[in-house]
Amino acid sequence: MRSVGIIYGFVANHHLRTQIEKTRKLADSNLKDLRTFLNGTPAQINYVLSQYATTKKKAFSDLDNIKPLLGGGIHEQLRPKVTPVLDDIKAMAEAIKETREALLNVNNTLKELKRSTAQLNTSLSDVKRNVEQSLSDPMCSVPPVATTCNNIRMSLDQLEDNTNLGQLPSLDQQIDNINDVLRTDLSSLVQQGYTSFNDIPEMVQNQTTDIISDIKSSLNSLGSNIENIGKQIPIQDKLSNFMGYINDTETYIHQNLFTLEEYDSYRWLGGLVVCCLLTLMVVFYYLGLMCGTCGYDRHSTPTERGCISNTGGIFLMVGVGVSFLFCWILMTIVVLTFVIGGNMEKLVCEPYQNGKLFQILDTPYLLNENWKYYLSGMVFNNPDINLTFEQVYSDCKENKGIYTTLKLENSYNISEHLNIQEHAGNISKDFKNLNVNIDNIVLLDAAGRENLMNFSSSGIDTIDYNVYLAEMGKAPTKVNLLAFASDLEAKADHLPQGSLKQSLKNNAQTIRTVHRGQVIPLEQSMSTIYQSIKELQLKSSGLRVKVANILSSLDSAQDFLKTRISSVIVEESTKYGNTIIGYFEHYLQWVKISITEQIAACKPVATALDSAVNVFLCSYIIDPMNLFWFGIGKATIFLLPAIIFAVKLAKYYRRMDSEDVYDDMENGNIGFHRHHSTQTV
Questions:
Q1: GO MF annotations for this entry (predicted)?
Q2: Do 103 and 169 form a contact (C-beta atoms < 8 A)?
Q3: Cα 580 from Cα 62, distance rounded (Å)
Q4: How confident is the model over 30-72, as pLDDT tens digits?
Q5: Spatial distance between the Cα atoms of 151 and 158, rounded to a whole number of angstroms
């Protein structure tokens, strides 16, 4: 066990020397961090304040773009109510033009159909007359040819026109009415409405030029105010006071560190000597035990013990002698190191680690009987402010800013000076004074309204389209001319050869020619005009209702512009102003958070304090010192039993100079021999 204690002593002695050698590097590192902490603070404050330029640049950009931002916002608010009406009027203007084209197309095609029908009637009459002339042939009076001729003559009534296109009324009057409507360019009037409505952003920009200039001036003055606030913040003043302490501390450390290292070398040498003395004692005891045990002979008499056994006894007695000589020195060293190390551990290290040391320092009127809180008295010269060492250490440990840690709001309340209402009052007032006058928007003038009403009364919705559709849906002829020609040709084949047969076949061919040249084109034209009439009917269906709905929507939109545009302008202006002011609200809030929580984050202070107390004092010095007295004390405690055992064992290991033999008879007992050996120590 003594050996373990001696090892502890050696380790502690060497460890303390090693840690002392690290002191310079530790001190330089912490002082460098503190200097960086102090010197970097002004740059941090300047950076935070310089970001106002970025905020102002963004605000100026929005102010320069008031046309799309504010004007566009007003325009977008009104668009859902206005644009659909203008789109409907524009579509109606296109419908008027398309209706005129459709009427002209139908009317012209109808005239062509009437002419084609007349030509078809003429052709059919000619064919019919030719067939009748052929049937006047004498052969038609001879049976059975007469029967065939009579059948042909009776079927000639089918060669007639099947339509009454000539009775369909002309559309000239409706076309004239549409032409009168088109004398007014409704599309141009609608485009004027679009232009008037789309000019709102431009009107907003033109009417706010002076106010925007005033707002920019206010923002420039706000930048000057913020810069002045940055200069008034007492962070740098407080930190400047600490710079002197750091310089003095650094000078003191550099001046005394060499002395500390020199004295530590003496301490290390003394500790090494103590450990070597203990080691020497243990070596004597171990050699005595080893030699005595190896050379011991139970059958030999004390005067006949061997040399090795005798040497072991001598080693044990030498160890006892050395122990007696230096034991008091070891005990004194153990007591001194125990008193110093133990008390420092209990009075400084442990209270520092659990925070009780700060609670003691924060005890009111302890450090200065006239000050309740010593730290606030030092910082603010006002000892009534609740500023404690424990709170400052805890905040620095969490790397909070020096403003929050030292409660500098008691010296300069940045929250009051960075209040947006204080700085943005004039700006808000300027935005409220935005006076945008856009009440003169006319979506469609009186001429456009009259044009729509004239179109609704043009009569195209009163045309009897069903009559036209009915006629266009008929076949051009009462009978299929191809079938009639085939039947005529078949009947002619039953006639004997002659002029009658040939004449009828020629007429059948003529009928086919009429079908190909007149009936088929007529059918195609009738089918085309049928679709045109259907489309025209669809366009004109409910025309008066459509126009009435458009005019109603137009009146509603125009009334909306007159009654709601002011509230829309106020709403969008407020939103626009709040956006601009919001940039500075966020900036000032960021400045406040940065200064109170981030700038001059004081963790290097807590780290330096931890390095001085927890690392240097406790870990570097007190812990090795405690380990040293514990090891040496442990070894010293076992000296007493070691001495006793060494003396007892030496009697059995050492060689004696003589032996004493005597008889002792007591109480009638038989006498026995007892050997006494003597030897000078």
A1: cholesterol binding
A2: no
A3: 7
A4: 778 777 777 777 788 788 878 888 888 898 898 899 889 888 8
A5: 12
User: What digits encode the pLDDT tens for the residues 79-97?
Assistant: 898 899 999 989 988 888 8
Q: What is the dihedral of CA 326, 330, 331, 337, to 10 degrees?
A: 160
456 burial via Cβ count (<10 Å: 0-12, 13-18, 19+):
buried
Give the Cα separation of 238 and 600 in Å (integer).
11
Show which of 517, 552, 570 is a domain's final residue.
Answer: 570
> Distance between CA atoms of 418 and 415, rounded to whole angstroms?
5
By percentage, how much of the chain surpasses pLDDT 70? 89
Q: Which DSSP string do the residues of 153-208 spell out, in sequence order?
A: HHHGGG-SB---GGGSPP-HHHHHHHHHHHTS-HHHHHHHHHHHHHTHHHHHHHHT
DSSP string, 514-575: HIIIIIHHHHHHHHHHHHHHHHHHHHHTTHHHHHHHHHHHHHHHHHHHHHHHHHHHHHHHHH
Q: At what angle do helices 235-295 and 307-344 cross, to 10 degrees?
A: 160
The CA-CA-CA angle for residues 131, 134, 139, to 5°, reads 135
CB 303 within 8 A of CB 345: no
What's the domain range around 565? 80-209+441-570
91: in domain: yes
Amino acid at position 506, single letter: N
How far apart CA 285 and CA 293 sit, in angstroms, is 12
Residue 44 lies in a domain: yes
Summarize pLDDT for 610-626 with one digit per residue, the tens: 888 888 888 888 888 88
541 within domain boundaries: yes
Cα–Cα distance between 443 and 448 in angstroms, integer?
Answer: 10
Q: How far apart are CA 25 and CA 261, in angstroms?
A: 13
Q: Which of 414, 322, 375, 260 is nearest to 605 (CA)?
A: 375
Query: Residue 577 above 70 pLDDT?
Result: yes
3 state DSSP class of 679: coil
Torsion of CA 547, 552, 557, 560, to 10 degrees: 170
> How many structural domains are present in the chain?
3
Q: From residue 196, how far is each of 188, 190, 392, 441, 542 by CA, in Å? A: 12, 10, 67, 6, 30
Residue 12 dihedral angles phi and psi, to the nearest 5°: -65, -45
DSSP label of 458: S
- Could you tell me the maximum CA-CA distance found in the chain, to the nearest angstrom? 206
The Cα 488–Cα 481 span in angstroms is 10
Same domain, 328 and 368: no
Q: How far is CA 378 from CA 238, 243, 247, 336, 387, in A?
A: 11, 15, 19, 37, 10
Whole-prediction pTM value?
0.65
